[in-house]
Amino acid sequence: MEGYNKILVCLDGSEVSEAVLLEVEKIATAFNAGISLLRVAHAITILPGTDPTEAQVAVVRKAEEYLSGIEEELKTRGFMVDSHVRYGDPAEQILDHCEWNEVDIIAMSTHGRSGVKRWLLGSVAEKILRHATKPVFLMKSSG
User: Fold this and answer.
1) What distance in Å separates the CA atoms of residue 34 and residue 12, rounded to the nearest whole number?
2) pLDDT at 118 over 50
3) If 0-12 CB within 10 Å is exposed, 13-18 middle and 19+ buried, where does residue 36 land?
4) Which of 4, 33, 52, 71 could connect to 45 by a Cys-Cys bridge, CB 3.0–4.6 Å?
5) What CATH number should be reported for the domain whose range is 29-140?
6) What are the structural domain ranges in the chain?
7) What are 1-43's pLDDT values in tens digits?
8) Can you give the three-state secondary structure of the chain, one letter per residue?
9) Bridge-partner residues for 111, per DSSP?
10) Taking Cα atoms as reference points, which of 13, 10, 21 lies closest to residue 128?
């Protein structure tokens, strides 16, 4: 059966983003595909006395710990899993990661923001949908 070999799962640390994992497990099982977890870290360093470098290192370490837990959980259920942390703008980093890594499909949940919240915060999912060169599996979260 021809299909997907590597599924990129974009996570932001929230339960909403993790909602896509159950569907990804089904897809990975159906195609015997590997799962690649990606978390894009970003530190807000506008507070006085905040060392930008220390803040960046701290958020990257936290992201690595977060993904490590999910990676180990998936591995115990028999999935082939790797994980990656990138730093910067989420949409840009996701698209760049896909460009430089063998990814067959991008899977992510959407927070389902609309109106002013979406306009102010932007939509990572929308940017991925518009610019990705790979198929996108997008799950609207009920949370």
Assistant:
1) 20
2) no
3) buried
4) 52
5) 3.40.50.620
6) 29-140
7) 468 999 999 999 989 899 999 999 999 999 999 999 999 998 7
8) CCCCCEEEEEECCCHHHHCCHHHHHHHHHHHCCEEEEEEEECCCCCCCCCCHHHHHHHHHHHHHHHHHHHHHHHHHCCCCEEEEEEECCHHHHHHHHHHHCCCCEEEEEECCCCHHHHHHHCCHHHHHHHHCCCCEEEEECCC
9) none
10) 10
